[in-house]
Amino acid sequence: MSWVTKTFNSTLGQKLLMSLTGLFLILFLIGHVSGNMLLLKSDGGQAFNEYAKFMTTNTGVKILSYITYLSVIGHVIYAIILSSKNKSARPVNYNTNKSSSNSTWSSRNMGVLGTIILIFLVIHLQNFWYEMHWGDIPMVNYESGVHKDLFTVVTVSFSELWIVGLYVISMIFLGFHLYHGFASAFQTLGLNHKKYTPAIKFIGSAFAIVVPALFALMPIFLYISSLN
């Protein structure tokens, strides 16, 4: 067995992969929310549709998409493995009060939070990613060419209150997941320092609030717009 295999089969190696995939997905969230903010632009969806076409046709972006898919799969697999190891190592539950005093609620429930986010992700992919690739989507013409009218697909979906509610609640869970995961990833990578750790925790907390809030803003905005 090579040292690479030994490393990635060890608990430390699996935590390292969890951290690396998690940090990559954090970068993905930044790019994703930045592009989706175009949904708020009052141009009838042109900017968003042009952005969507670029994201689905550019070779570099396609490669990053495949890396993202692998990161999601790897993050989920290693989360299951590590959760299973933790349960085996601690067959007897700790006293609730002791557990609460030594850790945050989000850190104690990362498995539950991750499971809820995974369920949301499956629904999200079915509603938009699947439709984008294989759905019967109307086409629109701009000066830049012919584009799939994905803006209409999104606005129609977010005219349904239950879908908006699902997204907003899921973003709250995502915020809790990021709150612990951001700082934890840096800690696992050994990037702990009394000078930098407070800044990392602050950035992580801000990220866990701002990014999910922006994602939640979009369905709320589009739903309110559909009422007018």
TrEMBL record:
Keywords, ordered alphabetically: Membrane, Transmembrane, Transmembrane helix
SUPFAM superfamilies in alphabetical order: Fumarate reductase respiratory complex transmembrane subunits (SSF81343)
TM segment ranges: 12-33, 63-81, 110-130, 150-179, 200-224
NCBIfam families linked: sdhC_b558_fam
Name of this protein: Succinate dehydrogenase cytochrome b subunit
